[in-house]
Amino acid sequence: MEANILLVEDDAEIARILCDTLTKVGHTVTWATTGLEGLNDFQAGLFDLVLIDLMLPEMDGFTLCRNIRWKSNLPIIIISARKDDVDKIEGLGLGADDYVSKPFSLAELQARIESHLRRWFRYHGEEEKRDELLYEQGLKINWSLQRAFLNEEELPLTSKEFELLRLLAENSDRTFSKSELYEHVWQQADIAEGHTVTVHIKSLREKLKDPVKSSHFIQTVWGKGYRFIGELL
């Protein structure tokens, strides 16, 4: 069972040991040293499992875990020297599948990795994600082509507008703050205090013909942010 694994760990010695161990059993490992680098690698590649340290530069492991879970259901294992129950509860609450405290047994970690991979590959074999979704009011989104249509006319979305639409539509059960949207789509801290997101959401709404007061797709949750309310056909 060979897999593509993303390792996000800033300790070079631990990362080297994990890379060597996982490579020897046939896995391909991509190593990132910061949270932002890990997010960039995740968005640029296709992975079957992610190992995340919590204490990372640029973006901590909790934030990285949350950003990955918004986009994928792949297994996430947190590996951390932080042993407090509150950290474990927070990590698992953000969508991590497992939490392993440092120092850990390589044999135990490898066994947990293989267990999660077995379930992931079985899930993948049974569930095929729909590549194209149709919504009421004439919206169609094609994920692989990164194109959206309204009443069969293609919308001239910029890459950032499409990423905003994608993130909201794929997580229609939650409300995103402006800072969360900026952090995920622009992959950096929001120093403009939401202004950039506001401008892009306004443009996206105009192209979707989606007025604020009678929205079909993007709803403003006052004081909190935005959520997607499109109804699937």
Poorly predicted spans: none
Going across the biggest sheet, name each strand in turn: 2-1-3-4-5
| Mean pLDDT level | 90
Q: Sheet with the most strands? A: 5 strands, parallel
What sort of overall outline do the alpha carbons produce when their principal axes are compared?
elongated
Main CATH class of the largest domain: Alpha Beta
CATH topology of the largest domain: Rossmann fold
Q: Tell me the CATH superfamily of the largest domain.
A: Response regulator
Structural class: alpha/beta
Order of helices and strands: EHEHEHEHEHEEEEHHHEE
What is the helix fraction of residues, given as a range?
40-55%
- Number of strand segments: 11
Distance between the termini: 37 Å
Which range does the strand content fall in? 15-25%
Radius of gyration, in angstroms, nearest whole number: 19 Å
Discrete helix count: 8
Characterization of the model:
Helix content is 42%, strand content 19%. With 233 residues, the chain is α/β, with parallel strands linked by helices. It folds into two domains: 4-126, Response regulator (Rossmann fold), CATH 3.40.50.2300; 132-228, Winged helix-like DNA-binding domain superfamily/Winged helix DNA-binding domain (Arc Repressor Mutant, subunit A). A five-stranded parallel β-sheet has the order 2-1-3-4-5, sandwiched between helices. Strands 6-7-8-9 form a four-stranded antiparallel β-sheet, with no helix packed on it. A hairpin with a 3-residue loop joins β10 (218-221) and β11 (225-228). α6 (159-170) packs across α8 and α7 (178-186) crosses α8 (195-208). The relative contact order is 0.10.
